[in-house]
Write a structure and sequence with these properties.
Helix 5 packs parallel to helix 6 and helix 7 crosses helix 12. This protein has twelve helices and 13 strands. The protein has an eight-stranded parallel sheet with strand order 3-11-10-8-7-6-5-4. A three-stranded antiparallel sheet has the order 9-13-12, with no helix packed on it. With about 375 residues, the chain is of the alpha/beta class. The protein folds into two domains: about 260 residues, TIM Barrel (Alpha-Beta Barrel); about 90 residues, no CATH class. The model has no long low-confidence stretch (mean pLDDT about 90).
Length: about 375
């Protein structure tokens, strides 16, 4: 596999482990990926619930939790450790400032356009910034906005396709439309970024995610002009994933028919594994009484069928009767629990094998 270079960061494996909240990708998973040469990513979503023993104040506990997770990851690995911060989070600014103060290597930010992300970077800070987009238009808009307002050029750009897990940056009717498939969008984003690079004499690596599952998938995406891939679902069924074993087992038990698109309380479509909790939601049997966290800007408790933070936290803890597992479109393909080292070794082997076949026999 090729290396992935983001400024002065160099990942020997061009794989970014997707940030998965609530609690699915913490220091355990992120450090394991970093040790194997990829970019490990801690999700900042929901840390205020996970660290509620420290403080009942959600925002205060979130700050403390992110500090602890970054420090634990650093103790376990010397590789590249990033943080995922969703724009839609009410404590977005707190999480970005904390990640920068703790010297996270890179911040990945999506679930909305992080138009003001560079404003949080003090002079001399080494933390890289990588927005997550779903279209070439959004990539171009962010590049121009950051340069004109902050004189800052994105260190990398992640493009997520509609086969990704969790909240999706697409309208429901776009999810199965070939015009929005990752294979269609990646070349468009690459072209947009290359045009910006030519204007400003710079280089911005494009990283692509959403449905990337095998070494062959990695090869095909890189052949479209991306320099790295983002993978989340594959890392759930690893020993080092921070989720409860029952959460991982839900992936192993899932069939293709169990993967469904839901309407999240935050106002976006999401992809999850169908279970009894989601069935009860459809029947109208779930209804929150109040909002205990104020965690997402776009979530209106008066119209929400359930508290998404509690649902995802319960799933993380293995209490799937009171929550559900977000997942990518290929989650049903999971067959076993393995270590991160074993997974990355198998991806490398698949990549090399397919690359050799392409060289010998062509496309």
């Amino acid at each position: 596999m090729k290396t992935l270079k983001i400024g002065d960061l160099c990942a020997s494996v061009p794989i970014v482990q997707g940030g998965m909240g609530v609690g699915i990708s913490l220091s355990g998973l992120a450090s394991a990926v970093a040790r194997e040469g990829g970019i490990g990513v801690i999700s900042s979503a929901g840390l205020g619930v996970i660290y509620s023993d420290y403080s009942k104040d959600y925002r205060e506990a979130s700050i403390w939790g992110l500090r602890q997770e970054l420090r634990k990851a650093r103790e376990k690995a010397r590789g590249i450790i990033g943080v995922n911060v969703m724009v839609a989070m009410s404590n977005f600014a707190d999480m970005v400032r904390t990640a920068v103060a703790e010297k996270a290597d890179i911040i990945f930010s999506g679930a909305g356009l992080p138009l003001n992300l560079p404003s949080f970077l003090p002079e001399g800070a080494k933390t890289k910034l990588a927005p997550i987009v779903s279209s070439a238009r959004a990539a171009g808009l962010l590049c121009r906005k950051w340069f004109s307002e902050f004189h800052y050029i994105p260190d990398a750009i992640v493009v997520e396709g509609p086969k990704a897990g969790g909240h999706l940056g697409y309208k429901p009717e776009q999810i199965d439309d070939a015009h929005f498939a990752l294979e269609t969008v990646v070349p468009q984003v690459v072209a947009e970024v290359r045009a910006f690079e030519a204007e400003h004499d710079c280089h911005i690596p494009v990283i692509a995610g959403g449905g990337v599952y095998t070494g062959e998938d990695i090869y095909r995406i890189l052949s479209l002009g991306a320099e790295g891939v983002q993978m989340g679902t594959r890392f759930v069924t690893t020993e080092e994933c921070d989720a409860d074993p029952a959460f991982k087992q839900s992936y192993l038990d899932a069939t293709a028919d169990d993967i469904e698109i839901i309407q999240s309380p935050v106002g976006m479509p999401g992809r999850a594994i169908r279970n009894s909790f989601l069935d009860r939601v459809k029947e109208g049997l779930k209804r929150p009484k109040a909002c205990p966290f104020d965690c997402i800007k776009t979530c209106d408790v008066t119209h929400s069928p359930y508290c998404i933070m509690l649902a995802l936290y319960n799933a993380f803890r293995g209490r799937l009767q009171n929550g559900y597992a977000f997942c990518g479109a290929n989650a049903w393909r999971a067959e076993k629990i393995q270590t991160v080292r074993e997974l990355i070794a198998s991806l490398k082997e698949e990549y090399d094998s397919f690359s050799l076949r392409e060289r010998l026999f062509g496309r």
